[in-house]
């Protein structure tokens, strides 16, 4: 089985994926966060982290969720 590596971001339009720019893909992701925060509030968002992530990656992730999103719903699988 051979896998093809993605080299460009993809967006879904009308049920189909198409290539786009990084700027457009990040704008769409931010728009989705904004729309769901407006619709459901910050506590509808949660972040899960991986135990293989570095302390720095975990720190910046929880800082983003708490400062930007506005929720304390942060967890990781470090206990297992």
TrEMBL record:
InterPro entries for the chain: Mopterin_OxRdtase, Prok_molybdopt-oxidoreductase
GO biological process, any: respiratory electron transport chain
GO cellular component terms, A-Z: membrane
Keyword Ubl conjugation carried by entry: no
Keyword Iron belongs to the record: yes
Molybdopterin oxidoreductase domain segment(s): 5-78
Example of a GO MF term: metal ion binding
Pfam families xref list: Molybdopterin (PF00384)
UniProt protein name: Molybdopterin-dependent oxidoreductase-like protein
Organism classification: Bacteria, Bacillati, Actinomycetota, Actinomycetes, Actinomycetes incertae sedis
């Amino acid at each position: 089985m051979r896998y093809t590596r993605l080299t460009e971001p993809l967006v879904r339009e009308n049920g189909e994926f198409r290539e786009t720019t990084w700027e457009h893909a990040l704008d769409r992701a931010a728009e989705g966060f904004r729309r769901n925060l407006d619709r459901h509030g910050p506590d509808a968002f949660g972040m899960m982290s991986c135990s293989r992530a570095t302390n720095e990656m975990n720190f910046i992730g929880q800082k983003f969720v708490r400062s930007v999103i506005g929720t304390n719903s942060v967890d990781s699988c470090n206990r297992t």
